Amino acid sequence: MKGEGDDGMTYLVLDQLTKRFANWTAVDRVSLTVEKGELISLLGPSGCGKTTTLQMIAGFLDADGGRVMLDGQDLLAKKPNERGLGIVFQSYALFPHMTAAENVAFGLEMRKINRADRDRMVAEALKLVGLEQYGDRHPRRMSGGQQQRVALARALVIKPSLLLLDEPLSNLDAKMREEMQIELRRIQRTVGTTMILVTHDQSEAMALSDRVVVMNKGRVQQVASPQEAYDRPANAFVANFLGRTNLLPGMVGSGSGGIVITVADSVWPVSQPVPVGQGALAVRPEKIGFVDAGGLSGTVLARVFQGTQWLFEIETAAGRVMVIRQHDGSPLPAERERVMIGWRPQDMAVMPADPEADLSAREAA
Amino acid sequence: MSMAASTDSQVQASAANPATPQGAHAPPPRRRRRLPWAPYLLSAPGLALFAVLLLVPLVMTFLLSLNSFSFYGGIENVWQLGNYADIIADSYFHEVFLRTFRIAAVVTILCAVFGAPEAYILRRMKSPWRGLCLLIVLGPLLISVVSRTLGWALLFGSTGLVNQGLMALGLIATPIEFMYTETGVIIALTHVLVPFMVLSVWASLQRLDPQVENAALSLGAGPLTVMRRVVLPQIVPGILSGSIIVFALAASAFATPAIIGGRRLKVAATLAYDEFLNTLNWPLGATVAVLLLIANIVIIVGCNRLVERRYKQVFE
Questions:
Q1: What residue of A is the nearest CA neighbor of B310?
Q2: What are phi and psi of A147, to 5 degrees?
Q3: By the number of CB atoms within 10 A of the CB, which of A69, A134, A341, B45 ranks highest?
């Protein structure tokens, strides 16, 4: 967690936010600080508590504990219609009996903004999302992507102090989704609104956010920039959830030059503070290379040509390892060949063994 | 018949052609012969039932309404519009028809006023209570109309439970007349017909995205504004179809006005009944029935058009 509350930039603070349902805790003491203008993603599998967290910020669910401070004000004390947040729903939740322009104007009407200003702001908002021609259309006559844009314009036009996006792109097809990702990023840059995006799609979170909050079972697993979370996952769950990874069991111990982790017949220096004992090592397939000495030995089980790259599966004493090599003409081992694989110590992440995470890692493999 | 025959011939054709190796798996070549009259053929039984049980009696009633009647000659097989002229000229009939539609209109409005919020509240209830309350709402439909209405008669009497209760509470000094009054008929009919409104509003609420209300809240609308600007316009089709059912049933209701309203407070349905069975003036009774039907259709279609135009977008 980036505890940067002192530099005066902290805008939104979630403090020990908790939501309990009858027989499980959906959100368990989630704490988070968000800076002004930041786009942050709550990322996790379904049921991890990300949507529940968003609903509590929006006020549609009451929190059972903790605080939410927005710009120094206690958000939980306010009613949902007094919070002044913009929300984009997964289903878009447009008003079907109103035109696109009427939908966008609704929030301004509620703020009693006069007709002339309202019309101007609605036109600006529709222009921002590229729908200036579609103001008098009804949602039913618009495509999913267009409805999505109307929902975005409707949420942005009220100049919200915070924009919450609940799985905004999950109902769009793949091509549309990519377009909207770029669009969303552009709009965020233009208007500079602080945004919280809830998604289960790791590539979406990576593409859009300044920081990702990886959640599982109601708890925050890691808060980091996308690259950092990808390269140095805090634990096995994050390593597995963000892209493909190799998770190898090992033993952390003190060596001559500091802490090391021993994985089968190889020893790697550890730079992170990790408790001594059972541990695990995570390394991305594309970060592994074939080396002559000082690595983990194994046998090539299979190799698959994928056009731009080769995919190898190596059987080692520590388990099967996935390796990706670029198809750049360099010599590569054949199937059933004895090989030795290695990686730079800075490309791996070491974490304490977590029996539960280990199980889910094996399921994912 | 011929459809079955064509299917048979297809089966035979594919059976007689075992030359292809995958003959067992490949579907027979589809020679899709269009049978333009097949839909009509398939719906023929339903249409026949409809014609025999509804159309024929209606036409016969209409023809009957053209006959004339005299006390000594009985029904005479002549074709004339005398009955219609009689009804149009007589203020007694005006009063009865006016009362019928006044009752129906008030009942429809009351059903909408109670039924629509009821459906909305029911939808927001939690699981065990929702089923229970729905059962209570639908309850009146499960009880025979006669016993239910007699129950009302017991409650409504000048020494009935309602009046005794109100008098015990000191709210009224003398009993309110419910029996043989429009008030009584309206209360009883509303009670019976409210389930139809609840069910049809319920159906349109099912199509409402629950997030839409949250969206309106987040944009700064208070709960009442959300109801008025967002929920209500979207359930108008449900209220309208409920109103049509309630109005039609209220305008042609017989048992409730007959028991609560009695012989003094006649509505169109009890009037037609009396003409048929007491006065034995079948042609006049038939005329009343035909006029009731026509007035019903005119009012319902007219209101329907009006509301559909007003809320055009919701109906698309």
A1: A97
A2: -60, -40
A3: A341
